[in-house]
Amino acid sequence: MEIIRKLIQVEHKRWVIGSSILAFLLLLPLFFLFTSILEVPSADFFYLWDTLLIDYSINTFYLILITCFSSILFGVLPAWFVSAYNFKYKNFYDVVLYLPLAIPTYIMAFTYSDLLSYTGPLQVFLRKVSPNLATYFNQDYLQIEILGIILGFALYPYVYTALRVSFSLIGTSYIQLAKNIGVTDFKLFFKVILPLSKPALFAGVFLVIMEVLNEYGAVKYFGVNTYTTGIFRAWFSMGSESTAIQLACMLILIVAFLFLIEKMSQKKAKFYYQSNTKLDSLIVPGYSAKILIYFVCSIPFIFGFLIPFLFILNNSLTHFWSTDFRHLFQLSLNSIKISSIAAFFIILLALIFVYVEKISRLKINSFLTNLTSVGYVIPGAVIALSIILLFTKFTLFNTSYLIGSFCVLIYAYVFRFLAVGKTPIKSSLDKQPDSYDVVSKSLGLHSFEILKKIHFPLNRLALIIAFIVTFIDLLKELPITLILRPFNFDTLATQTYEFAVEEMLQKSSIYSLAIILIGGGLLIFLKYITNKQIHASKSF
Q1: d(CA 209, CA 104)
Q2: What domains lie within the chain, and their CATH numbers?
Q3: Please, are residues 178 and 195 in contact by the beta-carbon 8 Å criterion?
Q4: DSSP 281
Q5: Residue 280 binned pLDDT confidence (cut-offs 50, 70, 90)
Q6: Can you tell me the distance from the alpha carbon of 338 to that of 407, in angstroms, rounded to the nearest whole number?
Q7: Out of 189, 261, 395, 421, which could bridge 350 as a Cys pair, Cβ 3.0 to 4.6 Å?
Q8: For the whole model, what pTM was predicted?
């Protein structure tokens, strides 16, 4: 009652109460998921432990370990070289190193499995050139270790992006001090720079872990049993609702533990940088250093984007005239339409939550709105399962008919990716001084008018960035779409996956190419507008 009384007494009570209700509605699926576990018989817990849980846990954590190691290997040094060194094609690498984000992980896995297969171009070429060498490469590549490396090439941009920003903010005083005492460039990086950037590294690795936990298409294709595939198998193949619920709750607990660790690592981040001492004096590398830089920066780009893109492009051109372009256009339209609608609602809710948090300064409201960001760290399969439970067990209204509707699908998208849209908006809005609101109120403007006439124009770029980033993630989303999509509704992602699991990888290439071209084009545009904004701010 005390909390309700405080909500009523605050100045912007309508906004606060409204945002609190919206936050509650978004979090309802998780509530029903955790209440459903109370209905699971105790015998089912022992069955899960004895038969499935250990295998799922070992495979999941082993895959996370390999993928994180690969992502760090491919992301750390390129971020440092691009941030600290002045070399030719620096701007080129700064753009293309982001491009693997345009290729969904499952498409990356399908592509490399086809490339490395017995009938793939690599082994066919080797059999012509060197039969003995071809025999050596004739292996089963559908292994968890290979999958981890492939996922590393697909997900390293998360590490690269986080460290790219962090390295650019490191004060030059640290570097000068290290050089004055005779520290070499090698020791400077590993003894000074990297330890100072630990929070950023942890943040990037955390995002990689979340993507691995959410992954379904790639792990299913490679035959790796993880928590996500286990939820799908239990729910749809075995018809065991209780097993799916247990796995989902177990996965949420794991995610919560990892999220807590990541937040604790961020607490000391403010001590790692010095204001007004940004790394603006770039190192000019020697000849041998340049060779190393080009090699290190080229490897992740070549294997993470160029090879998969060229392979998919070649397959698409080979089967170009056999493509059903009407079907391709329809699926592209479906993907763009559903992603745009969901991205619009995500940006709208994100703006409301962030704005209310700014004007109310109420801790309970801040807690609730921040809690809505938890959707991004919860795998899509878990979110889909919790939403099904919500709409099938909500007895107040007969809502089961909503399952398989666009409304439920968009609802799931919003919950899953709200944090993605909220991050750039919050970062931009927090930079606006409170005096803007004070002056606007003195002029007689209400809260909605302040948002519309003041904050919306000032944060237009952040809203565009948030929309693009969210749209790209929605375009690639697979688990939620597979489970909750309306009947006979396909997207580019679902069609690519369905052709791939039927071993029709060449036929799926044109749909994969469409995803890559749309996502890659938007990423390049995003990089362009952000760089333009950075240069504009530096001129003042």
Answers
A1: 15
A2: 14-315+324-538 (1.10.3720.10)
A3: no
A4: S
A5: very low
A6: 10
A7: 421
A8: 0.81
